[in-house]
Design goal:
Blueprint: H1 24-34, E1 37-40, H2 46-61, E2 66-67, E3 86-89, H3 95-115, E4 119-129, E5 135-138, E6 148-155, E7 168-171, E8 179-183, E9 190-194, E10 200-202, E11 209-218
Antiparallel strand pairs: 1-9, 2-3, 3-4, 4-11, 5-10, 6-9, 6-11, 7-8, 7-10
Length: 230
Amino acid sequence: MMQAPPFATLSSTGNSAPVLRSDALPALVDALIERGWYLGTNVIDADLCQALYQECLNMAEHGVLMPAGIGRGKQHNIRRDVRGDAIHWLDRESQAQRRYLEAMATLQQELNQTLFLGLFEYEAHFAHYPAGAFYQTHLDSFRGRANRMLSTVGYLNAGWPEDGGGEMVIYAPDVPHREVARVRPQAGTFACFLSETVPHEVLPTRLPRASIAGWFRRNASLGSVIDPAR
């Protein structure tokens, strides 16, 4: 079994609290190797979740979030019949965002050292689902056609009720209609999975739901052109 270092260094400068629980990385690595997806509860620091949740909520209330679409570049379209969330890309404009992104950068280094994935960079956005919103079953990347390798989701809503809906359903890579996990969107929960092979969906939510969706990418650039453009 591969041995992986803990997330002991995953905290921002000037803040001693680790962003991710210290025993999460070995379990994450093992799960990615064995089945292609990882799910952990109480993984993300609770105070950070609260700060990020409040930031996302403020953006939603002040109209900062933009309707999410499907596809990229010329293929980008707004399809409310497919997905109903609104997003804002993380840009390090707050201390909470910086802490989260710094933790993901360190996670990227650890995964490259442990699994030799060649991860190049990380991009992420807030995702706010109003009541009734959903996201139909999809892959985050198509095999051989894009450069997203690992997807992450960090959940921000504290005290999510059992009947709140909004779960992310993970399906088996080899049997796309067989459910293998149902992720309750509770603050502190962290999911990570292979972008090209793990189908998933977000079920209709009964309450406003906030999370951070992110992707570790490999470098598929040609010349000075970054592929794909956001």
